[in-house]
Amino acid sequence: MSAIASTAVGRPRLFDEERVLAELTALFWRKGYSQTTMSDIVESSGMHKPSLYRTFGSKEELFAIVLRRYLAERMQMFSQLIAESGSGISAAHKFLTLFEIDAVSERGRDGCLMVMASNELRGTLPGYDFASDYRQQMRQQLSTLVAAAWPGGESEAEFARARTDVLTTYLLGLHVVMRSGASAEEIHEYVQAMHLTVDAW
Amino acid sequence: MSAIASTAVGRPRLFDEERVLAELTALFWRKGYSQTTMSDIVESSGMHKPSLYRTFGSKEELFAIVLRRYLAERMQMFSQLIAESGSGISAAHKFLTLFEIDAVSERGRDGCLMVMASNELRGTLPGYDFASDYRQQMRQQLSTLVAAAWPGGESEAEFARARTDVLTTYLLGLHVVMRSGASAEEIHEYVQAMHLTVDAW
DNA sequence: CAGCTTTACTACCGAGCGGTTTCAAATTCG
DNA sequence: CGAATTTGAAACCGCTCGGTAGTAAAGCTG
């Protein structure tokens, strides 16, 4: 019933659902869930409240829709970054460099919507364990990067998993750093540190 | 004016301020700032609202008091963990082991109050950049651990800093993992991964 | 005991919250 | 054209939020 394209009949919409969702994603990302009021949502979306409730259900459902959209988008971004990184040890460096570029971008400064949401709403949004999902999927993606960067076959399975796990945890931590208002220089230092670690592997 | 011990004169308090603050720390830690209502605070503290406001000022000031207390407590804990870890490469392993024990404890499951608060309230609590403070102080502490574990003197300054930064970011990420409802087995795997990395350094 | 100070406790408050009702306007289809 | 359907737009609603008055009670000091 929610977030479904309207039928052909009836008065045509004045709003673009995708555009609105992108706008609201940025809003939640910036302010968090609880600190975002329906008034903020109305203002940011340009829609009126009844249209919002008719289209998305409720604030909570709207946030769930935003989260699902974000998760898919984010994983696509990871996938692309990894694809662009190539193979061999340089792939790890390339990936870190690309990630840093995103980190110091305007959006990057807000960290990760998933990490933010999970910290704020752990267990209060029913039926959707987004935080755990995010971590698993991110880990999955990073494992392909690790496989491309350190091709060791079965014999190195233990190390491959360890590298993947450290990278996953490190990136989650970097999200926290990003959201905590770190400067581009600070972020650069944290990324440089991981470059050195990668060389030690 | 707030959180000051009462004078000797007048009706004596029925509540223990330290005990109440400890209780409220746990409450905020569990539920986050926005999701904790004054009713929750009243119930959890056993105090009545006017007493709370007289003693602590407001919800926001109360949270600031809780955060400062927590920060000090937390840094003391880090300091102790590091002191117990000894020196040499085994210090790094010992530290990780001790940290894991805390991570899988009841309190540990909630991650870190500072990380949670910074993700939720970035920039809304005036005049106190707790997230950045926390990261800097944690980094400071970890640098002494690194110095004890890899005594390389001035020549290894660059590596020392990199190890410190990776450890800092990794631990922040682990806090996210902890709060996202990871099982003890998952946490153990993430910590094991860092054990292997430490050996590679 | 009288007077002063501080706390305990009930009741209450305005404001802003998420959510709804209502009706006019715009389009499609018979 | 006119009935049906969907959206736009404004006003409205109950509730819970953070925060206060006002008063009784309990301890010190003289």
UniProtKB/TrEMBL annotation, chains A, B:
Domain of life of the organism encoding this protein: Bacteria
PROSITE patterns to which the protein is assigned, alphabetical: HTH_TETR_2 (PS50977)
Pfam families: TetR_N (PF00440)
DNA-binding span(s): 37-56
Entries under Gene3D superfamilies matching the protein: Homeodomain-like, Tetracycline Repressor, domain 2
Species this chain originates from: Microbacterium marmarense
UniProt entry keywords in alphabetical sequence: DNA-binding, Transcription, Transcription regulation
Record-given protein name: TetR/AcrR family transcriptional regulator
SUPFAM superfamilies listed in its UniProt record: Homeodomain-like (SSF46689), Tetracyclin repressor-like, C-terminal domain (SSF48498)
Domain HTH tetR-type, first and last residues per copy: 14-74
Transmembrane regions listed in the UniProt entry: none
Keyword Amino-acid biosynthesis: no
